[in-house]
Amino acid sequence: MIRPTSLLAASLFSLGAPAAARVIWLDTPGTALTESTPIGNGRLGALIYGGVGSERIVLNEEGMWSGSPQDADRENAHENLPKIRQLLLEGKNAEAEELVNQTFTAAGAGSGLGTGADDPYGAYQTAGSLWLDFKGQDDFSDYRRELDLDTAVAHVQYTAGGVTYQREAFVSAPDQAMVMHLTASEPGALSFDVRLDRQERSETVAVARNELEMFGQLNDGYQTDKGVRYGIRVRVVPTGGTVTSSGNSLTVTDADSVLIYYTAATDIKTFGGRKVDDARKQAQRDLAKAVRTSFERQKQEHIADYQRYFERCQLVLPETASSKLPTPERLKAFAAGGEDPDLAALLFDFGRYLLISSSRPGTLPANLQGIWAEKIQTAWNSDWHTNINVQMNYWPAEVTNLSELHHPMFELIESLVEPGQKTAQAYYDARGWVSFLLSNPWGFTSPGESASWGSTVSCSAWLCQHLWDHYLYTGDQKFLREVYPILKGSALFYLDMLIEDPESGWLVTAPSNSPENAFVLPGSDKPLHVVMGPTADMQLLRYLFAATAEAGEILGQDAELQRELREKWTRLAPTRIGRDGRVMEWLEPYQEYDPQHRHIAHLWGLYPGDEIHPATTPELALAARKTLDMRGDGSTGWSLAFKMGMWARLGDGDRAHVLLRNQLTPARPRTKDEPWRGGTYPNLFDAHPPFQIDGNFGATAAIAEMLMQSTGGFGEITTIYLLPALPGAWSHGSVKGLRSRGGYEVTELAWERGQLTSAVIRARETGPVVIRYGDNVQRIILKAGETIKFGKDLQQR
Ligand code: FUC
């Protein structure tokens, strides 16, 4: 029987915590992943269900990828290119699409249409579960489970049989282990069995009186033995009482307190990830190291390590009565129209928490579920989708001051260059490299299995935006020199594959599609996708060509290429406004098949790109508004975050807030009428549905965009926009530690009654910067390390 938590129990965790303690908390044990508590250190992860009679801890390790390298390129696919292009030029899109489907998709099983766990493509999968089965704890009260974002420590507490039980857990990066500490208010009160299991391909043995090992090998997709091998160790260290083993489980009896350690390793050999030869031995070594330090010290080291990142940025928004509610109740109250600005700050912080916990220098990048998975066949293989998803994962990285955590993404991009050169050659007979919508640790760069989604040709240009943007934020020339060949290789590919549209004379991509949206031709109701020069492609190529030319100039390389890129830049099909006043999604004024489609990549130039802005292109900005109005304010999780960011760029904080409210609506079960309606799960994970982490990261980035934006960067004068899209609902507040392009840190930004009261900006390098707040503009020159303070109306202090 579950009774609600008393406020007394609730206060136990807030000892010493500031008023606006950053906690996600629930007053019931979790019954699903979407109610569990996620912890992680970038590589190792765990989902704590917090069960009372039986605790389930889902275990994760970033290298748990089935599959192996495959050659999914169709050799000589480029021989079909002239015919496909000719059909497109003749306006025969249906025929062109048919030919793309027959000749221009991935060879073989590709990604297994998103269910490729047993194909060579593979899937990111769970490492298994750790179960703690307690005796005699079925009746309980005063239950509270929380995730403390300030410390990255999870807590569970409840009372059963007159005894108060507590569990505390974290995943330490310094020690590469998850540690859980179980305590009870009475001595000798802890008795439970410890088990490990995994749905498949696992063997568990007790390797000592107090230690279990689980190990196995994942499917490589060819039924040979090239799959990833993994090793997992769990050690149980009681104080008082005993621990015994029986074959493949352990039993703790009458302990006062217990420490549980989890370590894991895989021998995945790919970019990022640890290079491990023997996964089982590595897990054993990690364990031996982790148990050497005392729990308290380990916890302090973990907190210090985590706070190095987390404390760089801080958002404070007003608290309300709702702030004290369990998180699922807060979601309900907010969706019902209540005010809860602090909930937005919690979501903002949760995104930063998730990035710190799923992406560290040297790890693989956060995938569709970060690092948290409880299945073997995860949704869409929990891979890296590159027509928005993995990019969105990294949108908060620079602006919220977590620049180093962006690096796993750069390594992913680098890993695609070599296989992408082969793909460029096979499909386009082109120089350089290209990658399409899907990717995995095995270097998958081929087009997807269906033209409807898999033929977008600009995904790799979108990836490259992250390289150049990192430079714009950091000015790191060493980095630019390292990644310049990647930018150049991408640009060379597009230079080779562009064709001239004879009607307009513009250069266009062909074939391609506008990410996943369809259109119908007059007199037909058949959804079609394949086109020439969709707007999204052209915006992305403008960005890539400009970035590559500028990078070449800064580095003093490839003068001839710079000239060519700049010349071709002027001939790329422009972003146009249609007769209905909206931004055209395609070259032709096609009718959309789904006017509310979740993808809105033809507004990429508004956000995260920079070619549409109310200050510089007011007409396009107006057309973007109309486009967003037509797309509507509903959709999947990431789409809501995408639109939130776009409304922020349009300077409409209240509309961005409508999207925020939609995103923070409790996720509902999927129905036939509403299969893909986004929202938020009780543990604050974003609902695509199902759980997909991009919406969490996208929301954090969009909230940052509501508070501060920047354009320009190194090489171009930076403009910093203060409070460009502050919603009325956030009447007062403050944010510290946001970063802008050009290397500036907005160390402080505070407002009251919706008006700026103070701003402090620090420069990294000497140079001019423009600061804007509403109609107030200041042009100043700052020296490296210098700080400038503004008050009301941007008055210098
Ligand atoms: C893209 C999106 C889907 C989903 C999938 C993982 O294909 O269109 O909505 O997010 O990625």
Helix content: 25-40%
The parts where pLDDT drops under 50 for at least 5 residues are 1-19
**The biggest beta sheet, please?**
9 strands, antiparallel
Radius of gyration: 26 Å
Give the ligands present. Answer: alpha-L-fucopyranose
Q: If you average the pLDDT, what whole number results?
A: 95
Report on this structure.
The chain is α+β, with helices and mostly antiparallel strands and 797 residues long. It has 19 helices and 34 strands. It has a nine-stranded antiparallel beta sheet, covered by helices on one side. A seven-stranded antiparallel beta sheet has the order 2-3-4-5-10-15-14. Helix 2 (81-89) packs antiparallel against helix 3 (93-103), helix 10 (407-428) packs parallel to helix 13 (477-497) and helix 18 runs antiparallel to helix 19. The protein is globular and about 85 Å long. The termini are far apart. Residues 368, 380, 385, 387, 389, 453, 516, 598, 636, 638, 688, 692 line the site of alpha-L-fucopyranose.
How would you sum up this structure in a few lines?
With 797 residues, the protein is of the alpha+beta class. A hairpin with a 5-residue loop joins β24 (679-680) and β25. The protein is globular and about 85 Å long.
List the helices and strands and how they pair.
Layout (H helix, E strand, L loop, with lengths): L6 H5 L11 E4 L10 E4 L3 E5 L5 E8 L19 H9 L3 H11 L24 E7 L6 E8 L4 E8 L2 E10 L4 E8 L5 E8 L5 E6 L2 E7 L11 E11 L2 E5 L2 E7 L1 E10 L12 H12 L4 H16 L3 E3 L10 H9 L5 H18 L25 E2 L3 H5 L1 H5 L7 H22 L9 E2 L11 H4 L4 H16 L2 H21 L1 E2 L6 E2 L10 E2 L14 H21 L3 H13 L19 E2 L25 H14 L5 H13 L3 H11 L15 E2 L5 E2 L6 H14 E6 L2 E7 L10 E4 L1 E2 L5 E8 L2 E8 L4 E7 L2 E7 L4 E4 L7
Parallel strand pairs: 27-32
Antiparallel strand pairs: 1-6, 2-3, 3-4, 4-5, 5-10, 6-7, 7-8, 8-9, 9-16, 10-15, 11-12, 12-13, 13-16, 14-15, 17-28, 18-19, 20-21, 22-23, 24-25, 26-27, 28-30, 29-30, 30-31, 31-34, 32-33
Helix pairs in contact: 2-3, 7-19, 10-13, 12-13, 12-14, 13-14, 14-15, 17-18, 17-19, 18-19
This protein binds alpha-L-fucopyranose.
